Amino acid sequence: MGTRFKVNGRSVDVNADEAMPLLWVIRDRLGLTGTKFGCGIAQCGACTVHMNGAAVRSCVVPLAAAAGANVKTIEALSPDRSHPVQKAWESCAVPQCGYCQSGMVMAVAALLESNPDPSREEVDASITNICRCGTYQRIRDAIQVAVKNARHG
């Protein structure tokens, strides 16, 4: 018997070393490749997923820490890309290369779930993901659009 937890609402039982980073379990064992590897040291945020509703950097979360948890990846945020953050990302043309965007979207979605109307300072303190393309102003703009989208459905 392995480590049991839920991913995107589906129960899984993963037989792997409990020290294996959750990122590699998600990508290599479960085939959910929307979560990206960036740095491997929890600095960039490309690997951000939700664990029990909180944004976590899955590259440094050991499989053992996921036991009994509910994990959500970008694949389950919204099957039709209708989540307010995804819609805002599109309307503000945030991505350039797009590599970091699934982690960025997941971090922002978790922030807005816990704080539906964050100040600029709260956004800056909470969203520490790195975008190599430097689209930070568009990211800030999209967060404000997402707040409005969430309010007005």
TrEMBL record:
The keyword Metal-binding applies. SUPFAM superfamilies: 2Fe-2S ferredoxin-like, CO dehydrogenase ISP C-domain like. It holds the Pfam family Fer2_2. InterPro entries: 2Fe-2S-bd (IPR002888), 2Fe-2S-bd_dom_sf (IPR036884), 2Fe-2S_ferredoxin-like_sf (IPR036010), 2Fe-2S_ferredoxin-type (IPR001041), 2Fe2S_fd_BS (IPR006058), Beta-grasp_dom_sf (IPR012675), Diverse_Oxidoreductases (IPR051452). The keyword Glycosyltransferase does not apply. Residues 1-77 form the 2Fe-2S ferredoxin-type domain. Keywords: 2Fe-2S, Iron, Iron-sulfur, Metal-binding, Oxidoreductase. PANTHER family: BLR6218 PROTEIN, OXIDOREDUCTASE WITH IRON-SULFUR SUBUNIT. This is (2Fe-2S)-binding protein. It comes from Paraburkholderia agricolaris.
